[in-house]
Amino acid sequence: MTRQARAGLAFTIPVLLGTLLVLVVPTAGALLLSVTDFDIYALADVHNLRFVGAGNYRELLQNPLFWHAVRNTLMFAGLGVPAAIGTSLIAALLVNSRTVRWKPVWRLLLFAPYVTTLVATALVWRYVLDTRTGLLNYGLALAGIAPVDWLGDPRFSIPATLVFIVWKAFGYNMMVFIAALSTVSHDLQDAARLDGAGAWARFRHVIMPAIGPALLLATVLSVANFLQVFTEPYVMTHGGPAQSTVTVLYFMFDQGFTWWNLGMASAVAVLLFAAILLLTGVQAQVAKRYEWL
């Protein structure tokens, strides 16, 4: 083995071991637990552990609360992903504009929510959306509008939570898009403008092909993140009102750490992993079709 190969192994093996310990082993453990009735009694005595095969999955698919959580999660993803991608792309285009001054300042301000502590900012937003003392309802009262129970009414709980999630997360995608936009030639855009191409035509035929891979990356990450929404509803609404913000991950947490039904919780984790993997594959195929890869 050459010296260069040994150096390569020295750098690669720690990463592979770390991946094995924090990703492969836990995933395999969750898969094994999902076919058992591992619960608090098995924690006390491993001899109480029984193999149930697909029993957890059958019970899970017959649980109305699980399907309610799936519907809520799909609503979060269906509304949140386009909102997060759209706002981050618009912000990136504005910040990247040659007419905008103080670009580093704007990038810092818009990216700051992403790097702030999630629980702390969720608590702040919870106070902002409070029915009686919240800043938002105070502004509505000045305009003569009756206060809205943003987090206590099932009609508004998901939209109100989504506004916070999008505000918190869009900064990362914005930075990805800014990096991609920096590779688009200004000469090419100027040539398209001289040929009579409007703003939309330049965006569609010049900018979009250049930022396609970045758009795919942001979409894949956003879909995976919105399918794993947990902390925001846990802190802001505790899954309420009337379980209107219970997501799949919230349901998994409840099964695993409230009822100590760890076998069922592992089955939820496996199904969620499979769903994210499937959607990622579909997104990759769509990207290939539109020549984004």
Report on the structure:
Helix content is 74%, strand content 0%. The two termini are 36 Å apart. It is mainly alpha-helical and 293 residues long. The chain contains 13 helices and no strands. It has one domain: Orthogonal Bundle (MetI-like fold). The radius of gyration is 23 Å and the shape is globular. It has helices at residues 3-33, 40-44, 55-61, 64-96, 103-115, 118-128, 135-142, 154-181, 186-194, 199-227, 231-236, 248-257, 262-289. The longest helix has 33 residues, at 64-96.
Sequence of secondary-structure elements: HHHHHHHHHHHHH
Percent strand equals under 5%
> Taking all residues together, what is the mean pLDDT?
87
For this structure, the CATH topology is MetI-like fold
Number of helices: 13
Class computed from helices, strands and strand pairing: mainly alpha
Poorly predicted runs are: none
Number of strands: 0
Q: What distance lies between the first and last C-alpha atoms, to the nearest angstrom?
A: 36 Å
Which architecture per CATH?
Orthogonal Bundle
CATH superfamily: MetI-like
CATH C-level class is Mainly Alpha
Biggest β-sheet description: none
Into which percent range does the helicity of residues fall? over 70%
Q: How many structurally independent domains? A: 1
Categorize the overall geometry: globular
Which terms would index this structure?
293 residues; mainly alpha; MetI-like fold; 13 helices; globular
Describe this structure in a few short sentences.
This protein has helices spanning 3-33, 40-44, 55-61, 64-96, 103-115, 118-128, 135-142, 154-181, 186-194, 199-227, 231-236, 248-257, 262-289. By secondary structure, the chain is mainly α.
